[in-house]
TrEMBL record:
It comes from Flagellimonas nanhaiensis. In the N-terminal section; belongs to the cytidine and deoxycytidylate deaminase family. In the C-terminal section; belongs to the HTP reductase family. Residues 2-126 form the CMP/dCMP-type deaminase domain. This is Riboflavin biosynthesis protein RibD. One of its GO terms (molecular function) is diaminohydroxyphosphoribosylaminopyrimidine deaminase activity. Transmembrane segments: none annotated.
Amino acid sequence: MKIHQKYILRCIQLGEKGLGTTAPNPMVGCVVVHDGEIIGEGYTSPYGGSHAEVNAINSVKNKKLLSSSTLYVTLEPCSHHGKTPPCADLIAAHKIPHVVIGLKDPHSKVAGKGIEKLKQSGCEVTVGVLEKDCRWHHKRFLSFHEKNRPFVILKWAETEDGFIAPESNKRNSEPEPFWITNTYSRQLVHKWRSEEQAILVGTNTVLEDNPKLTSRNWNGKNPIRVVLDRALRLDIDHHVFDKTVKTIVITEVKESRKYIEGVDYEVIDFSESIAKQVCEVLYWHSITSVLIEGGRMTLQAFIHENLWDEARIFKGSSQFGNGVTAPKVSGSVWSIQQILSDQLTIMTND
């Protein structure tokens, strides 16, 4: 393996540690190498905190070594003042002579300006090392800035005979979830929730399951809850309105007197392309990734409009015989794994 690739791979490993905490900033990883030895490492702090380059440079014990070191980073160092000063300025100030970058930053405030600033300071810059791997690593950030929409993940569980929900008469009188998957699969979903910025469901899912849409079975933050409620059929007693987590309701009702206090409302035209409008709303809220958890009509809307990036499909061992049929999606199979009695297939939209 080429030496630059080795260290960029380490940067990607480090960057993963920021998953679920850095958004809308990218989860960047960075290492500082001197004479073939890593002397500093860092990754992006939770949103509002230090960037990866700052954390990596600060971790170097002997700062005199920086002037003869190489800095590796998954994404182009920023060149503008945001919540923190420009990383390109910090690198230049320490006279680091060589910077190796996995991927150019598509953000309009950076977009090559960080690279140019480094070159102007006399720094040698190498760009495009393991670019494909870095693009996958930064897929949420790139979707937001290149496609002007969040990275969209579809998720559902279906029975062995292809249903995502039973017939209405099979449901309990209480509006609680009717589980298809096992405990371990459900815990994995809570992990996923903690990794994405938002989670989205439709009206019927809330009416039938009364979900909390939190990451309570995993040690991580709760995602922003997004609920499609065209006619405002949901009431304040549903868990999604418990105000423990930011909640956005997307509706066509413009009468604010019908809105629940403490909940954000966005109005769209449900007779037009719903998924496209939802993505526009989420983009306006600076949401870089969303986990779509159903139900079938909601999932199918994103599939129909081809506005999805990953599909994560559980198949349980139970059978319903009848009920709500699972969505149909075409894509490339990324992986298939067994979780005890459940099978998880992850597909990508190529």
